[in-house]
Amino acid sequence: MPVSAVLENASLRAVFLPELGGKLWQLVDKRTGFDLLWQHPSLAPRAVPFGSPYDDVFFGGWDELFPNDVPEVLGGVARPDHGEVWSMPWEWSELSPSSARLAVSPGVCRVSKVVTLDGASLRFRYRIVNEGADPLPYLWKPHVAVALDDDSLVELEAGTMLVDPWGSPRGGLGGASYTWPYAVGADGVTYDLRTTLPSSSGVSELQYATSLERGWCAVRHPSRGTGLGLSFDASVLRSCWTFASYGGWRDLRVLVLEPCTGYPLSVLDGVAAGSHQVLAAGGVVSCDMTASVLS
């Protein structure tokens, strides 16, 4: 196990792995003893070579993805799968018993986050600076793999959703747009996308909120009386992606919450469509986010 950095109080225990992309590995609701984050059942966290295929070493937890998702040439540089910062060792320092700073400099950009433990919440202050001389098309998103129960429910404050053609989405919804949370599938059935599915369903789906009513997403676990909610600045993180595998991707059951600066998977496609952005030379992106335990 890589070296860990721990923030802990009577309500919450947060375990970070700075050497592995500043990953938040565990987030335990101490009231229930439930770890709100998902960890791969057979892959242990370890340092991986830069440029590794993300899916092959997806251990779980909470990663930071920048400046891309799918491999692309951005700013004249070939960017690896899921970006540059998730596999790099981050510098970190303790600011106080309840606060820490983590930072990494991939290429000419510097990505940092200050994390503060406040009761049953973790407060994040993010800052990305383009220290180079050229503009950089980019996306940035926290990639939060969430543990699931049989009755877990997804919450979004979203308007229009777009289902990516990838995978095997329920109801044959790939490529469809709908208004959250109800979608009519190709089979004529109305689906409630708040519901999660058993592994036996064989479903895998990726979707994007193309409009947000508020910067909020969550997964609740009613039978456990807990859940994880993310609140964020929707003027910066203008979309929210959800990736879900209910047995349909590598036989895993996991849901990933991904508030993002834009959509879709390709940054270059998004820039052309006006749904991804360009970080100017000397430009700064900053955003606050709060991860809260829900009762």
Automatic annotation (TrEMBL):
Domain of life of the source = Bacteria
Tell me the protein's name. Answer: DUF5107 domain-containing protein
